[in-house]
Amino acid sequence: MQVELTDDRTVVTLPDDGGQLVFSPQALAKPEHGVLLRLQQGQFVGFDAGVADEFVTITMPWTAEPQYLQKDLTGETIPNAQQPYVDEIKQILTRFWRSAQTAN
Predict the structure, then answer these.
(1) Which of 9, 16, 18, 24 is at 20 to 30 A from 36, Cα to Cα?
(2) Residue 73: which residues within 8 A CB-CB, separation 6 or more?
(3) What is the average pLDDT score of the chain?
(4) Residues of the chain where predicted confidence (pLDDT) is lower than 70
């Protein structure tokens, strides 16, 4: 995993073409094959481009389906084949959200 920090964003690139997560307080465009998350006061508030304190884009490999990540994040059941990738993304999100909340 590679992490790049700049003044306005954090970019996490997963190994083996596993995708990329971008965290930014500025609005981000939804990736072609991925998900856009909005956070307000450290809490998830939507998958669209509305108002937020922080935005996260997740560009996913073609072997993973964005709708399953969205479903899992909203508590729905997803196919077992998608679960390992979704769990990895959720672990990264949890670490970064917790770190951001602790820093405030």
Answers:
(1) 16
(2) 37, 44, 90
(3) 88
(4) 97-104
